[in-house]
Specification:
CATH architecture of the largest domain: 3-Layer(aba) Sandwich
Shape: globular
Structural class: alpha/beta
Number of domains: 2
Helix content: 25-40%
CATH class of the largest domain: Alpha Beta
CATH topology of the largest domain: D-Maltodextrin-Binding Protein, domain 2
Length: 477
């Protein structure tokens, strides 16, 4: 931390006690007498006031050129990013020029960041999930935004801070690192159930399932009852396609009332009773021929669009892509989204999203990066970005600007209304390694073998996950 306090305190206290003649013995009062009052010390000089705190950013001049690494693709998102960056570059009073660079997927960026942490080669702004940023911070490599977020000149006002949805705003404050703020949310997404309503109607159902039992009944019926609107020559019908993705593991575990992590014991709980129940349920779908795996990137979107897939679970950010898939052959059907079928009284939705963070570099680069982060997450820019990207906005005040979106896309409104039921995946160091090396392999093992012991597999996975966590925590500097 560069923040220092200059303490110039000079307190001189000169006191004298007037107790009468020093040579005479003190008279001891009788028990009934009142105590003799002692005169107060005489202070000859008032204490000096504590000096004002010195602002460590007062003389810092923002860097003129900074780089932002992001993962966004697609013409609408790319065009929106280009406009946001151009507007910032043309209007900020400091002459800062941001260069936005597509740096690959989240995993690509994570792998690129690890070897360059604490070097001049880091980007000035980087996108990342909380667990990825926590991994970077094991090396004390990320800038704590608390240094600037309340700054009288450069910071956010209380009103601007309060405008964030509280859960989104709090998600990037890391108790593991003493309450440091290592990111700020520009958008959020949520796992939802996509369903083909026209097919459900043909199967005799009025709406989507709300419980796992209803989900299985509908999925299994769809597997033997093709949709009349299916594209000719498409794949055989199926009720559900599962992506081997840890967010699916979390979504189904949450829906059965569980969690992946115990935040009191700071340990993974991949083998909780709820997780075992959830993944025994998913295994049964495969065993009964009601589900299959997604075998290619976004294959579930394609199969959903051609009318051979009744249900899929995926990110709400995919809403426009599902719409495109449904309309691709010119014969769109009625579809929408719903909560993940659940055993809990209320839905429990997996809400997630990468934030934008600032790697440590120089004060000049860090200040310029913060000023761009502040602009990018401001209310009007946030609304512009959410509309173009399909993500949810993070500012509460912009909801009134979305009525046209809600009217035009009821599925988006349905998903937006489920945000209050949000739950988050573990924001802990090493979670990327747990996702790829532990959770996704065990998901495959569970559904590949209908006779596999789900609890035994999850017990072994949990041991390995906590071993990875312990190894990561041992690296804190």
């Amino acid at each position: 931390m560069r923040r220092t306090r200059v303490l110039l305190v000079a307190v001189i206290l000169i006191a004298s006690m007037l107790l009468g003649a020093c040579a005479k013995a003190t008279k001891v009062p009788a028990p009934t007498e009142a105590p003799v009052a002692t005169e107060a010390p005489v202070v000859t000089e008032a204490p000096t006031e504590a000096p004002a705190e010195v602002d460590p950013w007062a003389d810092v001049v923002p860097a003129k050129e900074i780089v932002w690494w992001h993962q966004h693709t697609g013409s609408k998102r790319e065009a929106s990013i280009a406009k946001i960056v151009e507007d910032f570059n043309n209007t900020n009073e400091y002459g800062i020029k941001v260069t936005a660079e597509y740096a690959g997927s989240y995993n690509d960026i994570f792998n690129k960041m690890l070897p360059i942490l604490n070097t001049p080669d880091v980007p000035d702004v980087v996108v990342g999930y909380q667990n990825q940023v926590a991994t970077y911070q094991l090396a004390n490599a990320m800038f704590d935004m608390n240094e600037l977020i309340n700054h009288p000149k450069y910071g956010l006002t209380k009103e601007e801070q309060d405008d964030f949805f509280p859960g989104f705003f709090a998600q990037d404050v890391f108790s593991l690192f003493g309450g440091q703020r290592l990111g700020l949310a520009p958008n959020r997404s949520m796992e939802v159930l996509y369903y083909n309503q026209d097919w459900l109607t043909e199967l005799g159902y009025d709406g989507p399932p709300t419980t796992p039992e209803q989900f299985k009944e509908m999925a299994c019926k769809a597997a033997v009852t093709p949709f009349s609107g299916a594209t000719a020559g498409a794949a055989s019908p199926i009720g559900y396609e599962l992506s081997i993705d840890t967010s699916r593991f979390a979504s189904w575990t949450f829906a059965f009332g569980g969690d992946m992590f115990d935040y009191t014991a700071n340990q993974f709980t991949l083998n909780s009773d709820a997780a075992v129940q959830a993944w025994t349920f998913i295994q049964s779908l495969f065993a009964d021929g009601c589900a299959r795996l997604v075998t290619e990137n976004y294959g579930d979107q394609t199969d959903f669009g051609n009318g051979t897939l009744l249900f899929t679970v995926g990110s709400s950010s995919g809403l426009p892509y599902y719409g495109d898939a449904v309309a691709a052959d010119g014969t769109p059907f009625k579809w929408s989204v719903a909560a993940i079928p659940h055993t809990t009284p209320d839905p429990v939705q997996n809400v997630y999203g990468a934030s934008i963070s600032i790697p440590k570099s120089t004060p000049e680069r860090e200040l310029a990066a913060w000023l761009f982060v502040k602009y990018y997450t401001s209310a009007d820019v946030n609304a512009e970005w959410a509309k173009a990207s399909g993500y949810f906005p993070v500012k509460q005040s912009v909801a009134s600007q979305f009525q046209d979106i809600f009217d035009a896309d009821p599925a988006y409104k349905t998903a937006f209304d489920l945000l209050k039921f949000g739950k988050f995946e573990p924001p802990v160091p090493g979670y990327d390694f747990v996702r790829k090396n532990v959770v996704e392999p065990v998901m495959s093992n569970i559904v590949d073998d209908p006779t596999a012991d789900v609890k035994a597999l999850l017990d072994a996975a949990n041991i390995e996950a906590n071993k990875i966590l312990a190894e990561q925590m041992a690296q804190i500097k």
